[in-house]
Amino acid sequence: MNKEDIITQIKRDAGCDDYEAECIFERALNDGTVKRHLNWNFIISMLIYLSVLATGVWFIWRRV
């Protein structure tokens, strides 16, 4: 889940506004209840797209 999804769920479950939900989320991060993780699928996909793009640019540059 991303931050927005978690805050939306906190607002729905606790019945609070955006500011209170944000405070609850920050407290959970500080306490270690919620941990941040990198989205490795997105990072690897972007690296693949960038490498294909760089290879295409290199190929066009070499052919000119």
Folded structure, characterized:
The protein is an all-alpha fold. It is built from 3 helices and no strands. It has one domain. Helices cover 78% and strands 0% of the residues. The mean pLDDT is 94.
Q: What is the percent of helical residues?
A: over 70%
Shape: rod-shaped
Query: What is the H/E order?
Result: HHH
- Helix vs. strand class: mainly alpha
Round the mean pLDDT to the nearest integer and report it: 94
How many beta-strand elements?
0
- What does the radius of gyration come to? 20 Å
- Low-confidence runs (pLDDT<50, min 5 residues)? none
Proportion of β residues?
A: under 5%
Q: Helical stretch count?
A: 3
Secondary structure layout plus pairing:
Blueprint (H helix, E strand, L loop, with lengths): L2 H12 L3 H14 L8 H24 L1
Helix pairs in contact: 1-2
